[in-house]
Amino acid sequence: MNTTDHSGKCGSATLSRLFLGVLGAAALSASAASATVKVEELPLGPDGDIVGCAVSPHGGHVAVLANKGSRFVVLLDNVEGPRIDALLSGVYSGPAGVGTYPNGQIPVLFSNDGSHSAYIGKIGDEYVVMEDGKELCRGPFVSNGMSNMTVQLTFSPGGKHLFFMNFDGGKYHVVVDGKPGPPTGISQPLIISPDGEHYAYGGFTNSSLGNGVPNWAVVDGQQVNYVGDMQYTAKNVLLSTLPFQGNTLLLLNGKPSIKAYGINPIWISPDGAQIAMMITPTSGQPPIFSVDGKTIPLDQGMSVGYLYFSPDGKRWAALCNDRTGSKCMMIDGKKGEMYQSIANQSPAADYYQRWTWVNGKTPASSSDVGIAVPGFTADSSQFVYVASQGGRQFMVVNEDESNGFSSQQTLAPILSPVGHRIGVIGVAPNGKQHVILDGQEKEYGPPNGAGGIPGRINYLTFTPDGTRYAMINGPHLVVDGVALGGTNPGM
Which 3-state string (H, E, C) describes 115-177? Predict the structure, then answer.
């Protein structure tokens, strides 16, 4: 388990001394237009005895693991904690040996805002949990005892709560701020509200929790009698669905809202303002598609497979399937053309490559690389997707369908980070590459040019403010439609 949250790197465990550079006041000299910067060196650990360290988000705090005789200590901003036998990555993990911490980075957890810290140490036959340099709680240590804990050492947003899970008396307990909750026979997942204030766990399945423990759920530390699948909305409302007398109940913060034979799936807009769901009123009846309590008519035999909300939370688009397997997009309640397939894709491979080259690391997800397609533009004005029919691909913007492109090159539209600019590179049926930019289509040479790479177009991208675009056309960089001099620098 990796519980450490890093925004910076501390170097290797061979460091003999760590220093935190603190920028002092910088003043312009009256005789020279240059700033004099004062740097203060602040030692963070004993010279020659540092094992590794961890840096908080934003770099405001540093935790150092150092030797202390035959034991170790954790120093938080050079304030020494208790002597420990070892630093643990989990309450029942095996003690890590000196020199085994990757790149010298130790398992000290910081909250997402960097204001709180926590770690787990082994002292004798006990584990001890330290929060902000003070002992929070301790318990019996079992070397490599339980490796399937679903709740690892975790801060809620803003460090408002600290969670972990232990195993005591043959039962699991979620420990919140040092206080263990009721026992369960099955390790249960934990959900946390976006504001970090609220949490819930337990009762996430309809079966017994094991070992004779009945179903239950805990919400904000209180055991409740309603159980089922739970999730928090962006507005910190707890949404639950659970079986009830052969039907399904939908609860909002524990209060019944809808009862039907089936309520699944459910989609919630990122801002929590809209909720959509498929509702089956009674057994044998076709499902009803509902958005914010309004029924949206569907053709007979049609269902909704996925829902996309706009960034402003005011619009939606539904990916619909008919009984034959064909698909269409319904945008704000208006059904579009039927297609053999509609791709649920991420940015093109070369766009990933360019992002990696520019940022010096691999993206964690497709959302890091760019706005997902199918999806709305950044200003919520247009919905973009790629559909296939009769062996050809089409980019569709709202209701407008592009010319057909061959499958030789997968269409992967790029959306500007700001506004509503859209670009895509495709191969036309005649084998030549085309670029569609803001609705204007231009033909270029074949995808691999005469003799290979010279004619290829790739790496279409927009600037962060969306005002400009660039792409590679063979050996040249093209910016806002103008080919610059020089050769391809390897972008």
Answer: CCEEEEEEECCEEEEEECCEEEEEEECCCCCCCCCCCCCEECHHHCCEEEEEEECCEEEEEEC
